[in-house]
Amino acid sequence: MQTVRDLDSLRVAIDEFRTEGHRVALVPTMGALHAGHMALIEAAKARADRVVASIFVNPKQFGPNEDFDAYPRKENADAAMLEAAGCALLWLPPVEVMYPDGYSTNISVSGVTEHLDGAARPGHFDGVATVVAKLFNQVQPDIALFGEKDYQQLAVIRRMVTDLNVRIEIEGVPTQREEDGLALSSRNIYLSPEEREAARVLPRALGEAARAIAAGGDVAEALTKARGMLAKAGFDPIDYVALHDAGTLDPLTVFDRPARLFAAARIGRTRLIDNLAVE
To answer: Which of this chain's residues are annotated to bind beta-alanine (predicted)?
Structure first.
């Protein structure tokens, strides 16, 4: 596996892939890799000849009181995992390459960012859209893969690619979970043993609500019950438990179209998010 940190070396490597006629996949990450990321790499290998992974902890998608400084960074361990998984190239740009002196461009996607984390974390998705657009321009992949755990992020990227006529396929990969249902996340390492035990209530509450709604139950009642389960388990604050259109992410009060159930809540100092399809 090649590891590159500057744009010239990246472009040489990508040009070599293209000269050899290879289809290229990109898996953007912020590092602190786990089995969920490895599922993205495996899916990418099935859809392309060469897989490029990027690791960049993007300061523009963190708010002023969020965990940018504390976010786990495990470059050597991450590189070893990617190489073992068959990744062809690791793109490791420093901040000064991504945002050099004088950088002043921002990409903002409206509509799908108006609710959920778009409301709870102002500016977050501008940072996501901006860094992903830069990664797309740098790597110029044929396909890029993102996890459905960050479903709103996936919707933002799909909207951006459509609106800007970007010729890159976007593929979502199902959320990877622990045996007790907790979605894999780099932030799970923040959880104490007691918090980890309580955290399993999040997927359980969403699952019960999703089943109730799919069976024709009252949406507001199901959401209220899920919030109660989270509060009883010690989640505080609860940012949202909500039902939204699976495509537009418009909020729903009745289940009359493909939908997604979303939740975000804090247990101790760790903010967890999750979502489930309602079918």
So the answer is: 61
